[in-house]
Design goal:
heterodimer, A: Rossmann fold, Rossmann fold, B: Rossmann fold, 13 strands, 28% strand
């Protein structure tokens, strides 16, 4: 095993995933600890310009190109990474904890019998070991976990955990040919689907009043709608509400829904699971109303109110002359 | 196409509860905790039962856990699973996901299957790793974060959720491991007679010895795992808290929203 840290760049429809630049920053930290270099690997077809964009962040980009890599498939990506693990022998293989990351990282670790730790909010090398900080039980418990292995560590980093790398000099693109013709693709890409939007775009609203499980009943959405109207905003929702079809999918804020940055985000009865918070944490003013004083939403809120939304919102409407 | 399906289920502490760290800091306090089936696994089970109802086949539910985990297996039997298997794994926390996956894989090698389904993530440890690890360990095809699974002549067509509301659809060969996303379907409620019947059904218990291992811990992993310590998350809250009763809080919030220019009229 060498000392380098190799990150896997993620891209879709010609754009790098924002999490990739976070990986660049973290890979640099880890490379300093290991005494090696941080490198990125970018897999694609006709992806030279994407690789060059990534290289402007001061990192060497190994560019692996093949028609088979035009669309992400776990089988083709795994075949490339297994080859790089043999030839480049990195100490750490770093991926983002995204839907692609948690498709690829565990299957790679399972098939090559490698140590794996996922969804880390922080990770560091200590001597021969790797220490990962993770969150458990709906963000209510934090833990440090130590893995010790002679093999390459496969790690996924939760998006939003570190600041993305800024542009800097010293990067370059290194074409890295890897033959993939004989790789069996058992999970074959058929199509990419975009949701048919026939609803307002919450991402363009200045004010979002979002509802979570704390509103208890679908009928109580009327309160949230009334408040949104009074504030000239729109109604958003956490995932459980759109899963129950109380609101259309287009209203869902979070990793699997919309990323929003309104001037005001009023979270009503939303506990603040990672998947929700990652979609709204950059809002201008975040106000959170929740009965649980330990709710993780309060970590990102600017103003917190421990109260039942079903009492608070009617009282607020009255104060605003809309009750 | 009728399939032999195995659904991996996990029993977890209800994550809506408050938790305290056990003395020594290696686990949470578990006395009097309320346990339930992991949320995403309910959707995996429902998907399996629907595939069986449509195409025929058989659904086996599998869990690794102590005796208390029989409860989630009985619920699954009541909802339409044909057989339940529990791997007698007594580590109450199960924090080493790589070990748990290797234990499940050892059992899966002995259980005939075309398709393994499990939830995309467990709400206690949030690894989103078990499904992918199983696929890698078993050498099976896989797809993650599925919102739709249909059978075709050659295998499956699986729609997988991506970030930002996008989805990718794949043709997946069998045998395969697929992780199922929250909201992929509407899980059914078990009818009372089925619950009564499930209460009497036999749950097959698999010990490490029956799979040729001296103990579960004798299954090799490529690393040594160690819980350094659990703690409450550092209080990072920068929120300015508005105290008082709802009426007072509402008044203060209304004033703040007016000051910031969010209220017109």
């Amino acid at each position: 095993m060498g000392q380098d840290v190799l990150l896997v760049a993620e891209h879709l429809s010609g754009a790098l995933a924002p999490s990739t630049l976070e990986l660049v920053a973290k890979a640099r930290d880890l490379a300093i600890q290991s005494g090696g270099s941080a490198k990125a690997v970018l897999l694609g077809h006709g992806a030279q310009s994407l690789a060059e964009t990534l290289a402007t962040h001061g990192i060497e980009v190994l560019l692996v190109e093949s028609p088979i890599l035009e669309h992400y498939t776990a089988d083709a990506y795994r075949a490339v990474l297994l080859r790089l693990l043999e030839t480049a022998g990195p100490r750490v293989l770093l991926l983002a904890h995204t839907t692609q990351g948690y498709d690829l990282a565990p299957s790679l670790a399972g098939s090559a019998d490698l140590p794996l730790v996922t969804n880390c909010i922080d990770v560091r090398l200590e001597g021969p070991g790797l220490v990962a900080t993770r969150r458990l039980l709906n963000e209510k418990v934090q833990g440090d976990f130590e893995l010790l292995s002679e093999k390459a560590y496969v790690v996924t980093l939760r998006p939003g955990s570190v600041r993305p790398a800024a542009p800097s000099a010293g990067g370059r693109v290194t074409p890295t040919p890897i033959a993939l013709d004989s790789t069996p693709i058992r999970t074959r890409f058929l199509r990419l689907e975009q949701p048919q939007v026939q609803d307002i775009d919450i991402a363009s609203a200045d004010v979002i009043v979002s509802a979570g499980r704390g509103i208890q009943k679908k009928e109580n959405l009327a309160l949230i709608e009334q408040l949104a109207k009074r504030l000239g905003g729109v109604v958003g929702a956490s995932r459980p509400l759109t899963d129950m079809e109380w609101l259309p999918k287009t209203r869902q804020v979070g990793q699997s829904g919309k990323t929003v940055r309104p001037k005001l985000y009023l979270a009503c009865g939303i506990s603040g699971a990672m998947q929700h918070v990652s979609g709204m944490k950059d809002s201008g003013l975040i106000v959170a109303v929740n009965t649980d004083p330990s709710a993780p939403i309060l970590e990102v809120a600017h103003v917190g109110i421990v109260a039942n939304v079903l009492e608070l919102v009617p009282a607020l409407l009255k104060e605003l002359g809309a009750g | 196409m009728s399939l032999a399906i195995v659904v991996c289920l996990k029993q977890i502490p209800n994550p809506d509860l408050q938790f305290q760290i056990a003395p020594g800091g290696k686990d949470i306090k578990r006395d009097g905790l309320n346990y339930k089936i992991n949320g995403a696994d309910e959707y995996a089970l429902e998907e399996a039962v629907r595939l069986k109802e449509k195409n025929g086949g058989r659904v086996v539910v599998l869990t690794a856990g102590p005796k208390r985990a029989d409860q989630v297996l009985r619920e699954a039997l009541a909802k339409g699973a044909d057989e339940a298997v529990r791997l007698a794994y007594d580590d109450p926390a199960g924090l080493d996901v790589g070990r748990v996956a290797r234990i499940l894989a050892a059992a899966l090698r002995a259980l005939p299957h075309d398709l393994v389904l499990t939830g995309v993530q467990s709400d206690d440890t949030s690894n989103s790793a078990t499904g992918g690890l199983l696929a890698g360990l078993l050498g099976a095809a896989h797809a993650s974060v599925a919102t739709k699974i249909v059978t075709t002549g050659e295998g499956l067509e699986v729609t997988c959720e991506l970030e930002g509301g996008l989805a990718r659809t794949y043709a997946v060969r069998l045998p395969a491991v697929v992780t199922v996303q929250f909201g992929a379907n509407t899980p059914r409620y078990a009818p009372l007679p089925a619950i009564m019947k499930a209460a009497r059904q036999t749950i097959r218990e698999i010990t490490p010895a029956s799979l040729g291992h001296a103990s579960w811990d004798a299954i090799p992993t490529p690393y040594i795992f160690h819980v350094r310590g659990l703690s409450p998350p550092p209080a990072k809250s920068r929120a300015q808290m508005i105290p008082g009763r709802a009426a007072e809080q509402a008044k203060a919030l209304a004033q703040l929203l007016r000051e910031k220019g969010f209220v017109r009229g």
